[in-house]
Amino acid sequence: MPDQITETTNTGWLARIKSALTGIIIGPLIIILSIWLLWSNEIRSVNVSNGLEEGAKAVVSLTSPEARPESEGKLIHTSGVLDTTALLRDDIFGVEQKALRLDRKVEMYQWTEKKSSSSNDNLGWSQTTTTTYSYEKKWTDAKVNSSNFHTPTDHTNPEEWKYTSSTIFATDAKIGNIAVGQTFLGQLKAETTFTTFSPSFSLSGTKVENTSIYIGVDSAIPQVGDIRIRYSYTPVGTMSIIGKLMNQAVIPYTTKTNTTIALITPGTVEASSMFATSQANNTLTTWMLRGAGMILMFAGFSVFFQIISILTKFLPILSVMVEWWLGLVSFCLTLLLGGTIIAIAWFAARPMISAIVAVVVAGVIWGVYQMKKWTTVKVEESGVSLSGV
Questions:
Q1: Distance, C-alpha 110 to centroid of its chain
Q2: Is residue 355 one of the residues assigned to a domain?
Q3: Which of 334, 312, 335, 314 is nearest to 323 (CA)?
């Protein structure tokens, strides 16, 4: 069971109103930030999409992974065995493996803090908040600064890590006679773990347990500050790669829209499939950022309208109704403003399409106007007045 500390605080009506008034300033700033996020995301999405389309048209697929003069400076695609000759070695613990990348993951047993709160409104506009701080020991791969805890006493973590996580890349990786650098190798996942493990080191208090290294007294009863180290790697194997061929090496390719193309995937994969996957990833990223921008905008409107909610707290029934309506208003404003920003940015990033759409819309409006005018003339000729139409 985690350690728990509960604290109850009371916020008076004046403090709540001051906080809500601050929201009148902070809310618009959050909304402006969300507008920037939505706008820049649409521009980014279009540029990446156009860049990938440009790359898909320009790419040259090599029949074999060989650097030849006629392919120099071009965007190339090739498949083959991505191999390396040297062993990758972690000099600290003597772990070595023939691989494209070798990852060392360091975790420390540390105190962690979790905060949960619940609030109740009181008569007279005050508010009572109950906050619970839960402390639990966990293995984590990032430093947890216990000095920021609400109650650091008896929940102290070491300030320094003697060892940290790291990644080693092969420096002589080649597919055929084409050198492949860290930009590409860094995209590969190190998911293969060791089945046999024979590190070489002489460090006191350090021992090997199965396929990991443990620094501490007993891994069955870990203590705060204990460290465990595990390794994984990317083995050599068949890869497909897309990039610019330069001096017998593949490097990132920059398109006219300033999009960087440097693609690598395990197995033998056609260039068209690799570009399709990248387009799908771009679409997914676009929608995720759209969602983040809309949520941020909704939060901005909610903070801005908070003062209205606070002023109705004197009557609980009225307060619930007002909060519901303010939530609905914030939601509708978010859809209206957020959708408008996305639409404007979408058209701004596609000037040709925007021009065509504008011409079509103008043509439809003109056609409707001319049709109404012609209908009016015909009806008036028949002796019927349309003065009220």
A1: 27
A2: yes
A3: 312
- Total domains in the chain come to 1
Q: Please report, rounded to a whole number, the percentage of residues in the chain having pLDDT higher than 70.
A: 91
Which pTM value belongs to this model? 0.79
Residue 16 lies in a domain: yes
Q: Please check whether residue 69 lies inside any domain of the structure.
A: no
What distance in Å separates the CA atoms of residue 244 and residue 264, rounded to the nearest whole number? 12
Does any domain span residue 311?
yes
Of how many residues is the chain composed?
A: 389
State the residue range of the domain holding 355.
11-46+288-377
| Distances, alpha carbon 290 to alpha carbons 36, 42, 262, 279, 339, in Å | 11, 8, 25, 16, 10
Over residues 346-357, the pLDDT tens digits come to 777 777 766 676
Residues in CB range of 168: below 8 A, 6 or more apart: 88, 89, 90, 101, 102, 104
Query: Which residues in 170-210 belong to E strands, given as ranges?
Result: 174-175, 178-180, 192-193, 206-209
Burial grade of 381 (CB within 10 A; 0-12, 13-18, 19 or more): exposed
Q: How far apart are the first and last CA of the chain?
A: 76
